[in-house]
Design a protein that fits this description.
- This protein has 464 residues and is α/β, with parallel strands linked by helices.
- The chain has one domain: TIM Barrel, CATH 3.20.20.80.
- Helix content is 30%, strand content 12%.
- The protein is built from 14 helices and 13 strands.
- A nine-stranded parallel sheet has the order 9-8-7-5-3-2-1-11-10.
- α8 runs parallel beside α10.
- The protein is globular and about 60 Å long.
Length: 464
């Protein structure tokens, strides 16, 4: 058994990557924010934006373009699609640029078609505040959130996913929204000195106590649910993560003494009720640390306060986002199997004590942040850890939506035994139990709050 060591900090929320780094205990500044995955490559996004503005046939001579269009006619526009939930959701994060690019979407569908992947988490609103499609929600249009359309046709995208049998999940970022905070500063966290509160990174945050914030996002969710999205995934459903010196200046109109964790619970319960008539699942991205921390680390996410008001909780258990000493491991990033397994075991133990608890489906790391570089062995280790604790669902996060195909089980099964990293060695998966019991751990006092480690997600649009 791994022995838990003290946790010195909390993790960040995710969205484009789930995360953000709170430091109630004075965490080392070298540690990356837990909710911020490596930013997507701006050059790649620029390339995709150009592609959206210039579809392939636009670069062909008129006669060739017409011939290509005739050979590949546009599917008729539809406004509703039907998706069956897979028995086991195994998915990829697909940013809005990739979802709107026919070339990238086709490549990701081909990857899913040849592997165990059966689901895509699609950005509907990310941390930029922009809504990805031509929304009819009045507030979105009023604040300019429809000013950067990345998915020109939901009909085309959903039609391709329906045809391929891929389950789509609509990711909607909540409290990180520079467009709404600029247009409606009254909905933002306020500063005790006057005006809006700005954190040390220059971000303005929406106030989770404000009902108008809830209603705006529920309206976006209802819109995409009416198109056929069967699952709504809330990201950045939390309070800001920042040092106590900064948080001390923050003021929340409408709080009336209510604990932060109650506000997050109330929103999740409200959204579930507001969407109940549409038959969709309501899920939430949360910090990885919520699986093991027994108190609120400052962001309003406490496992027992939300797990029974969501259908699925998605903890961002990225090994690179855990602090030194988490779960007794000195270098968490080098122990992807051990970190993910320990975090998920804690989640399952706590859910077992909660009547009506939702399922747990982790966000796993398919990106490199520190040493060792992450490849097939590191990604497969996390997937195997998920299976070994009895969870058969997962989502991979890569901010650029580019994934390690070799880590995924091919249709028909592996023909060669896959490798995985465990005990900081790369070995065949069949050797994992032999090495798991001998993992060197850093033994120390249990932390005063009962937590076992940090952990979050990397900067997608999911914000834990």
């Amino acid at each position: 058994m791994l022995i838990a060591a003290a946790i010195s900090a909390c993790e960040a929320d995710g969205g484009s990557f789930p995360g953000g780094a709170d430091s109630p205990g004075g965490q080392p500044t070298a540690q990356p924010p837990l909710d911020a995955a490596p930013p997507a490559d701006p050059e790649a996004n620029a390339e995709l934006a150009t592609e959206l503005a210039n579809p392939p046939e636009a670069d062909l001579p008129p006669d060739e373009g017409a011939a290509q269009s005739a050979a590949n006619p546009e599917p008729p526009e539809r406004d509703f699609f039907l998706f069956a939930r897979p028995e086991k959701v195994r998915g990829l994060y697909v940013n809005s640029w990739s979802a709107g690019s026919r070339r990238r979407l086709a490549a990701l569908i081909a990857l899913a078609d040849s592997t165990e992947v059966n689901s895509f988490v699609i950005d509907i609103k990310d941390a930029s505040g922009y809504v990805s499609h031509p929304s009819e929600v009045a507030l979105a249009r009023d604040i300019g959130a429809t000013g950067e359309i990345r998915i020109p046709s939901l009909s085309y995208m959903l039609g391709k996913l329906e045809e391929a049998g891929i389950y789509p999940i609509a990711r909607i970022v909540i409290v990180k929204d520079p467009l709404l905070t600029a247009a409606r500063p009254d909905l933002a966290v306020q500063d005790t000195a006057g005006g809006v509160w700005i954190d040390g990174k220059g971000f303005v945050w929406l106030n989770p106590y404000q009902r108008e914030v809830w209603d705006y996002h529920v309206a976006l969710a209802r819109e995409v649910a009416s198109w056929g999205f069967p699952e709504i995934q809330w990201d950045y459903v939390r309070f800001p993560d920042a040092p106590a010196s900064e948080i001390g200046r923050s003021h929340y109109p409408g709080r009336d003494g209510q604990p932060k964790a109650d506000a997050i619970r109330d929103f999740l319960a409200y959204s579930r009720d507001a969407l109940a008539d549409m038959g969709v699942s309501v899920t939430a991205d949360v910090f990885g640390v919520t699986t093991s921390a027994t108190r609120d680390v400052g962001i309003g996410q406490v496992w027992e306060s939300f797990i029974d008001v969501v259908d699925v909780a998605l903890p961002m258990v990225y090994p690179s986002h855990y602090w030194k000493g988490s779960f007794g491991i000195d270098t968490p990033n080098a122990y992807p199997y051990e970190i993910v397994r320990s975090a998920l075991e804690a989640a399952l133990e706590r859910s077992a004590e909660m009547p009506g608890a939702g399922a747990t489906r982790p966000w796993l790391q398919d990106f490199t942040l520190g040493k060792p570089p992450y490849g097939a062995a590191e990604v497969r280790a996390q997937i195997q850890a998920t299976y070994d604790v009895g969870i058969d669902e997962w989502i991979l996060w890569n901010p650029g939506s580019r994934y390690t195909a070799e880590a995924l089980e091919p249709v028909g099964g592996f023909t060669i035994e896959p490798l995985m990293r465990i005990a900081n060695e790369v070995v065949p998966v069949s050797r994992r139990y032999e090495l798991y019991d001998t993992t060197t751990v850093m033994i120390g006092e249990d932390p005063p709050d009962g937590s076992a480690g940090g952990g979050g997600r990397v900067g997608k649009g999911p914000g834990g």
